[in-house]
Design brief:
The protein is α+β, with helices and mostly antiparallel strands. It has one domain. Helices cover 23% and strands 37% of the residues. It has one helix and three strands; from the N terminus they run E-E-E-H. It has a three-stranded antiparallel β-sheet with strand order 1-2-3, covered by helices on one side. A hairpin with a 2-residue loop joins strand 2 and strand 3. It is elongated. The two termini are 23 Å apart.
């Protein structure tokens, strides 16, 4: 996860073929989680790049003056 210090990005699958993309990062006492999950066969799930872009947007908003 470039651009967000100490962020952790991961994907996950479940036994039925569901899939998820997640990004976690902390700022002081707060932890932020941006994620999306969907069932197997979903017709238009979000891409990993879209989830990462949302995490970057949130990070910039958290750090705006």
């Amino acid at each position: 996860m470039s651009g967000i210090p100490d962020a952790y990005g991961f994907t996950a699958t479940d036994a039925r073929g569901g899939f998820g993309v997640n990004v976690l990062f902390a700022d002081g006492p707060f932890v932020y989680h941006v994620g999306a999950g969907w069932a197997a066969g979903a017709t238009s799930p979000p891409t990993k790049q879209q989830v990462v872009a949302v995490a970057h947007h949130l990070y910039k908003r958290v750090h705006a003056s």
